Amino acid sequence: MTQVPPSPSHGPVLAIRGLRTEFRSGRNWYPAVRGLDLTLNRNETLAVVGESGSGKSVTALSILRLLPEGGARIAAGNIELDGKDLLTLSERDMDRVRGDRIGMVFQEPMTALNPTMRIGDQVEEALRIHRGLDRAAARREALALLEEVKLPSAAQRMHEYPHQFSGGMRQRVVIAMALACRPQVLLADEPTTALDVTIQAQVLSLLDELKRTYGMSMMIITHNLGVVALIADRVAVMYAGQVVEEAPVRSLFAMPRHPYTEALLRATPRVDEDAGTLAPIPGQVPSIRAMPPGCAYAPRCPLRRPPCETEVPPLQADGDRLLRCWVRNNERIAA
Amino acid sequence: MTAQLEAPSSAGPRPSALAQAFRSNQTTWIGAILLAAVVLAAVLAPLLAPHDPLQQDILVRLEAPSAEHLLGTDAYGRDVLSRLMYGARISLLVGFASVIAAVTLGGALGIIAGYMGGVIDQLIMGVMDVLLSFPTLLLGLMVVAVLGASLENLIVAIAVTEMAPFARIARAPTLVLREQGFVEAGRALGFHPVRIMAVHILPNLVAELAVMASLWLATAIRTEASLSFIGLGVKPPTATWGGMIREGFENILDAPWLALFPSLAVLITVLALNLLGDGLRDAIDPKLRRE
Amino acid sequence: MSAPTVQDAGGHDGLEVLNLRKEYRSTGLFGRTRRTVRAVDGVDFHVPPGGSLGLVGESGCGKSTAARCILRLAEADSGSIRYEGLDVRAARGPALRMLRRRVQMVFQDPYSTLNPKRTIGQTLEEPLHVHGIASGRAAREAARALLGEVGLGTDAMERLPSEFSGGQRQRIGIARALILGPSLLIADEPVSALDVSVQAQILRLLDELRERRGLSFLFVSHDLGVVRHICDAVAVMYLGGIVERGPVREVFDAPLHPYTKILRAASPVPDPAARVTMMRIEGEIPSAAAPPPGCAFHARCPAAFARCSQERPLLREVVPGRAVACHLFP
Description:
The complex is a heterotrimer.
Chain A: E1 14-25, E2 28-40, E3 45-49, H1 56-64, E4 72-81, E5 84-85, H2 91-100, E6 102-105, H3 109-112, H4 119-131, H5 135-148, H6 154-157, H7 167-179, E7 185-189, H8 197-214, E8 217-222, H9 225-231, E9 234-239, E10 242-248, H10 249-254, H11 259-267, E11 316-318, E12 321-323, H12 326-334
Parallel strand pairs in A: 3-8, 3-9, 6-7, 7-8
Antiparallel strand pairs in A: 1-2, 1-4, 4-5, 9-10, 10-12, 11-12
Helix pairs in contact in A: 4-5, 4-7, 5-7, 7-8
Chain B: H1 2-6, H2 17-24, H3 26-43, H4 45-48, H5 80-116, H6 118-133, H7 136-147, H8 151-178, H9 181-188, H10 193-201, H11 206-230, H12 241-250, H13 257-284, H14 286-290
Chain C: E1 15-27, E2 33-47, E3 52-56, H1 63-70, E4 78-83, E5 86-87, H2 93-102, E6 103-106, H3 120-130, H4 136-149, H5 166-178, E7 184-188, H6 196-213, E8 216-221, H7 224-230, E9 233-238, E10 241-247, H8 248-253, H9 258-266, E11 316-319, E12 322-324
């Protein structure tokens, strides 16, 4: 039914440029995402990491155009999937993009599943809608998919209902449904946050494996730096609606450059390090209604200098990474 | 997403649900104005009523509306407008008193059932289910039949019929609140169950109970009218809306206004209360509005 | 019947829990017991005065239920709980009131931990009134002082919970737990709903309070990293039982029980170099309603052998100060 257009094999699969997403409070609109540039390359796993209020989930909703109507709007920017701007698509075309070309996995698997429908039927339905398969073919394919996401005794369990499944198993079913249309991009927003750690490890390794077999690109949105370290190729750290640092995963963790990234790492209690190493970040994330005029992190930053509090630093290239910091960028230029 | 807007500590105090109900919904205003008019007419009846509601004048029986009698006269020559205004006092008194009794009793039982759980819960809610299984009017009829027809008994009867819904309304959120941190903290701090229920659970239910009360007030007024209509309400010659409708029915062909005007009074009051209640409910729970 | 260990021999100081059991029965139609969930199935541990024990495990392992039994928010079925020489399970009247003043709790969800209709001042002063400790100006002063101690301004007194962020609410929840001057604080996932940067602030605060007031902690958490930073000892629970217990650093750096090893390996560490250690973890946590016979973990255990499916291993000391419930350690 849907023919995936011959995609140019070069260039990023997903490119976000200058995205500005605003929320309404009373009569005013406040930006939750402020001029976001982000690219997702082919066969890559990009982790977008940030705390609540960083705009990471708003970014995901903006890509899918699932923002609450009336309460939020995309005020500027574009989001290109394979060179085509999603923001100009009609609602019908966008419907086809969601699920067909971008697979979605969210934090709470129960919201993505119909509680009154058998698991197998739900996967079948996805296959018939998105791939146009007939009943018999859809049934075969559904079983294959459920086996692929390692649902134990899939042939029997596909006749069960979501409430008979554990959280981890439900998330596997949601992943199977997301894969039903062989998407180019898998968008996962906190996919393991509601799961126990041993189940989280299983689901993350499953996602990683599927990404490779299907040749997908994956964008994983999380607050958990441990999850980032486990699965990402590249990491974008968001703070107050902007990317503050973007780097390959190894260099980011080996040598965080932005003071926020650094502080975040030192504020994370690690099971492999002793107490006393923990350093809290003073203060809190600024309200989107009271953004500081300069660098959003300046009020909490130990390195801040006069320009930090008045001018927003640009996102500048710094070796293999991008960095939004007056102090660190000047250090580099001076060196 | 709204949580993101609210999370920072800079958020100021939010406008009360009541203020919001009036700001966001014009029909709430209509309800409030209509109800205010009815209440005012009832309270000021001795001043505003053009005639004595009990004074009979057989010379002007069953007169159509005129300048002297704006809404006409009844079979005994009593002024319908004056009787309507005095009748409003009875209707509102019975309505308010019975609903207040029902909220207090039903709310308390619902909270106790929800918080205590177990056998107490089963016992209380079992009785409430029995009450609920009777049609309102039939139950009211039974209570009045047992106690005898009088103003007080009418209030008791209607309170009994409306207690069960309030118990249910109070119990459901109590089951949720019981598991909340602040209630558990109260238990851990050694607070008496009565204190937990009265200080920590009840205030979080007041809004829901108030909305339900305004909606059930309308039902109470209807029930009062129905019971009076059957003749089980306040004894004649006291003016009540239900009684007036019944009397009007005897002359429905000669003087249709006799039944029409009190019926309209019931209708307007019930409508006003429903508009008001809906507006309040929307303001308290915006999720319901979309449905 | 668990074998006694060195930690249990600590005498009557602090918190001592022995062979604690708690079942939940869900009754079906006509009051018949439909199924029984053994939430806590024979657990012992000891928190010495000034010590801090982490109770870790995945959802459904019984760690929260154990904590609730100590606070008498749930009634244990059997076993003994003693705190400062007081029989917790038997406490009634004045003894129970004393217990309420000595043992307090910090809750998980910062949004439901405070009554939305009560000002912070009311919330903090109420326990003082109820216990007849202070009233009027004295109660206000005590509340103000405590707000300062948890890092909030006294202007918070007149405000409602909705005016505070999650981290601030958690600070207020801690202040409420401290207002009666307890010596043991039980915290059930007190930072798991908070952002990383705020999480560290609260952990730091708890650490400071513990030092300043000489508090003991029982810290319930699924996050091994958090436990490592706030506890000296840890007890790892699986399906209602403790599988391993010992000093936190030793248990996490060199876990002995196969489940602890898996839990430790699955706990993500912010270091991509640690990726190689991510092992295959098979299976799901069985339901506590139908625990397998023998060792509760044998079905998922990579090292299981015949005996594991027949006989339940007892928690016994294998290295000084460390106890494991596993047939691999005879």
